């Protein structure tokens, strides 16, 4: 009997957690909302105790008799209001704190889950106690009394007293109470949505509103009880308020304020600007990420086409790694959405991880394991079919096959980097994210890696290349995005140059007659003419088409031309110009 | 929640491979049970060779459990001492999984191998399960082997009634039920601590506090207030299970991908 009692008690404690776990797992694959809900619940419950004590103490000090207090609706209302207000303050501030700290991104569904966690716990705990007391009731009926099933001592006596009270009410009453508590779920969801809208709007105002509402609800319930209103009055009040909460939450769902959460987006059609009409492999739309209120990435949008090497440049702390982590489904964006190879970020994260290969900033190998075992482990996680052949293929391509049995910890930096690249490619991903692939490599190893990246492009893979090496980006990338938390610029290296510096040609010669500058300035395709060190610098609309006419005109003017060369600017110059234009040092 | 057993097995194999190549873990896994075994066996042999122990400890014990009353004086003394040593075998699944789990997670943090790992389709549940099982399996096997081996060895030296106390159903149940649960709780604790510290020695020192409840149990036993029964073992197991579920909630929360990448520093 002792064991049965123990088991039932334990069940009553564990049941809320188990049921909550199932509920949350079904709805969303994270524990956060549930734990956040429990936190707000615990705080509000704890807050009630000292508040009640303080209020009772204050009343006793006032010298008023119990009868006088109970007979005064003003005092009762004051009591109910203060308790509701202060407990509500604690609860809503906790909720606000939880949102700010844990839910920087704070979506509509997050706030719904948090409210469900809080209200759900309240409801489920009651279910646990109902189970416990129902079992006790059954056992008591069978045994004829309670003495055999309660633990001895003071606690046992209290429990027995409570159980006796429980037995004296009709059996259906607790279930009505349960129904009333079930409204705790929509009520708390409503509160959460209200508070979250305050966090999103960076204003405390809705929190104040939530506290006031809380005080009104708690206050009204306590008031009804203290005024000895029939129990159904409280239940009806809770039901009305619960239904109003549901309507409020539903009305918020469609509002523009919630629109920037990561909603599933349909895969985009092929980019019309692409001459080959290639498939879009990465489509990012308004991606943002903030940590505890600090914005790391703000509203970045771009698309990457199949078979493209897409350079991602930016200074340290610009948000490159954060963006890559979001695109690799390692981090949830605070706002915005992305579609990776047709899979929507947030919804198809596992499919995304199957599609991509990633080379992280540091190789992240297991130093005690051999190169072969390192790769074998990842191949098994990626469910690669022919593991041995794949490992052999990539280790041979990167020149590591002969040293496959040596521990990765004994490898040089370059070898470790190559091994990490092999790891990223084992499962033949269609998109490869490379974060600083040639950093800390000697020139020979860097060349091997660059050639390898080119060969991946030839195979039709899409490469997303994060680098600080501007020369490398210039040589490898089809298009380059420059970011500094937000997107500064995005284009082909050539277009970036021409956008900044125009399309200029430098003409060197031994003599240029005085009138030739005016003559060529009058040509319709010439945008600008400047005098250089040993000749002229002419900006043209299209040097490839206009050069012949320009040279002919200069010769006609009597100029003696030695060289005509296209003026080039390094990507480094472009990068610094863009960064300066964007406001300050990179 | 769908668990891919192939991925869990890959995780366990990788952890096992790492354990075999880590001298610190290997030596801990060999020496801790060995010392406990040798202490128990040595004490039992020494006591069995003394024809009439002139020890007064038996009288210093506040009370002798009723289950031991009626036995010869020497047997009571031997059984009391053996009972104390049995708690050592509960400490093995407490200490070893903690060492493995903390070394594994802090190792991953040091090697920065978590990011590429999390970029694979491995789910949080699989990762959690793989790491937990890898940390528990060996220590549990070691605990069972050392308990079995100790029982076999002392059976040659101790009186029959003492052996029956050593291998009574309550202790066998404790080995089968309580040990894995203690191991699991220890792993979960290790994981939580490891997520917050960067040195495995610090993690193990903090996590070492988890043996305190077992020390407490042995003190209760010494005072004659506790004598393991099947019911008590079931109750303890259920209590540890309940505590483990709460600790699991915290550990799973910490095992979220984003938390690992942004907060595990």
Tell me what the structure shows.
The complex is a heterodimer of chains A (about 575) and B (about 260). Chain A is an alpha/beta fold and about 575 residues long. Chain A has helices spanning about 1-25, 30-60, 65-70, 75-100, 110-145, 155-165, 175-180, 185-200, 205-225, 230-255, 320-325, 350-355, 370-380, 385-395, 415-425, 445-460, 470-475, 495-500, 515-520, 545-555, 570-580; strands at about 280-290, 295-305, 310-315, 335-340, 345, 355-360, 430-435, 460-465, 480-485, 485-490, 505-510, 525-530, 535-540, 560-565. A six-stranded mixed beta sheet of chain A has the order 6-7-8-3-9-10, with helices on both faces. In chain A, strands 2-1-4-5 form a four-stranded antiparallel beta sheet, covered by helices on one side. A four-stranded antiparallel beta sheet of chain A has the order 12-13-11-14. Chain B has helices spanning about 5-20, 25-50, 55-60, 75-110, 115-120, 125-155, 160-165, 170-195, 200-205, 210-220, 230-255, 255-265. Chain B is elongated, with a radius of gyration of 21 Å. With about 260 residues, chain B is an all-alpha fold. The longest helix of chain B has about 40 residues, at about 75-110. Chain B starts with a helix and ends with a helix. The relative contact order of chain B is 0.14. The mean pLDDT of chain B is about 85. In chain B, about 80% of the residues lie in helices and about 0% in strands. The interface between A and B is large, with 47 and 43 residues.
